[in-house]
């Protein structure tokens, strides 16, 4: 009887008139933040409104605008599903995600997501990324702006062209069949992050996003792009800079050269490993 109650507690059930969704998986959405007070509460509540259950880990890099304080207030309302790690200053997007990945692996999450705080990534697409991994055989699902045309809203044309051709350049150099190589909206199966040697990931900006995809690809994992519409932030200030693109341009060449000499780890074969 007790065992049955424990098993039932692993499910979150939603009745959507036409279907009942049962999710046993532990899903964690990692959101790095710096000065996102306008968005953070809204994005967390939007994530919690989806048809499957997600937890949220916010990694805040010392936001002076009080972003962390807003998250702490939400923790009083959602003590089991809102988590916060505070870091002293801007340490980089890549290191924030690596910190989050390690935190997730220590706590047995099955699916781990990367997501921005500014609603450029639609929370409803979390379900589609999850489905690609849980039902369609993907090990890494990528929310792709370019797999079905150019699906970007409210970006200046110069930025659209820079991002689009940057992805083309990365695909050409690395030989990786991914249309949106710099995408930052992703779902990883746990086994991907367990296999990738996270301490060897070096880059911080766009190059980090490329490096994670390329490493997963070289490890033999299946990557699947899920078409999304990317909408430029409405509130808050963009953290994009020219240095991020420069890092990506040079980093791709370094990744390619290093791949000729590096032996990549292979996926674990544990049948219980997702």
Provide a descriptive summary of the structure in words:
With 274 residues, the protein is of the alpha/beta class. The chain has one domain: Spore Coat Polysaccharide Biosynthesis Protein SpsA, Chain A, CATH 3.90.550.10. Helix content is 39%, strand content 18%. The chain contains nine helices and eleven strands. It has a seven-stranded mixed sheet, with helices on both faces. A two-stranded antiparallel sheet has the order 1-2. Strands 8-11 form a two-stranded parallel ribbon. The two termini are 27 Å apart.
Which features does this protein show?
274 residues, seven-stranded mixed β-sheet, Spore Coat Polysaccharide Biosynthesis Protein SpsA, Chain A, two-stranded antiparallel ribbon, disordered N terminus, alpha/beta
Task: Reconstruct the topology from this structure.
Elements: H1 2-9, E1 12-15, E2 20-23, E3 27-33, H2 40-48, E4 55-60, H3 67-77, E5 82-86, H4 93-106, E6 111-114, H5 125-134, E7 140-144, E8 152-153, H6 157-174, E9 186-189, H7 190-195, H8 206-218, E10 223-227, E11 230-231, H9 242-259
* Share of residues in helices: 25-40%
Mean pLDDT: 85
Structural class: alpha/beta
- Which CATH class is shown? Alpha Beta
Strand elements, count: 11
Number of domains: 1
Q: Span between N and C termini?
A: 27 Å
**Major sheet attributes:** 7 strands, mixed
**Unreliable residue stretches:** 1-23
**Sheet with most strands: strand arrangement:** 5-4-3-6-9-7-10
Strand content: 15-25%
Q: Characterize the overall form.
A: globular
What's the architecture in CATH terms?
Answer: Alpha-Beta Complex
């Amino acid at each position: 009887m007790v065992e049955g109650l424990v098993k039932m507690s692993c499910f979150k059930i939603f009745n959507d008139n036409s279907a009942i969704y049962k999710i046993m998986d532990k899903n964690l959405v990692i959101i790095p933040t710096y000065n996102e007070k306008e968005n953070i509460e809204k994005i967390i509540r939007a994530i919690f409104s989806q048809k499957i259950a997600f937890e949220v880990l916010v990694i805040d890099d010392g936001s002076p605008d009080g972003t962390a304080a807003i998250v702490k207030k939400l923790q009083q309302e959602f003590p089991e599903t809102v988590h916060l790690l505070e870091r002293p200053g801007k340490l980089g997007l890549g290191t924030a995600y690596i910190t989050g990945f390690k935190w997730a692996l220590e706590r047995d999450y099955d699916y781990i997501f990367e997501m921005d705080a500014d609603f450029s990534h639609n929370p409803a697409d979390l379900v589609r990324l999850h489905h690609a991994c849980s039902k369609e055989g993907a090990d890494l699902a990528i929310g792709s702006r370019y797999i079905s045309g150019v699906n970007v809203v409210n970006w200046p044309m110069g930025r659209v062209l820079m991002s689009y051709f940057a992805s083309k350049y990365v695909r050409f150099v690395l030989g990786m069949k991914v249309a949106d190589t710099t995408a930052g909206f992703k779902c990883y199966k746990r086994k991907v992050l367990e296999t990738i040697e996270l301490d060897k990931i070096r880059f911080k900006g766009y190059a980090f996003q490329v490096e994670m995809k390329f490493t997963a690809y070289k490890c033999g994992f299946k990557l699947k792009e899920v078409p999304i519409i990317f909408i430029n932030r409405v509130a808050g200030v963009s953290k994009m800079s020219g240095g991020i693109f420069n890092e990506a341009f040079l980093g791709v060449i370094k990744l390619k050269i290093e791949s000729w000499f590096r032996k990549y780890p292979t996926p674990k074969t544990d049948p219980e490993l997702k």
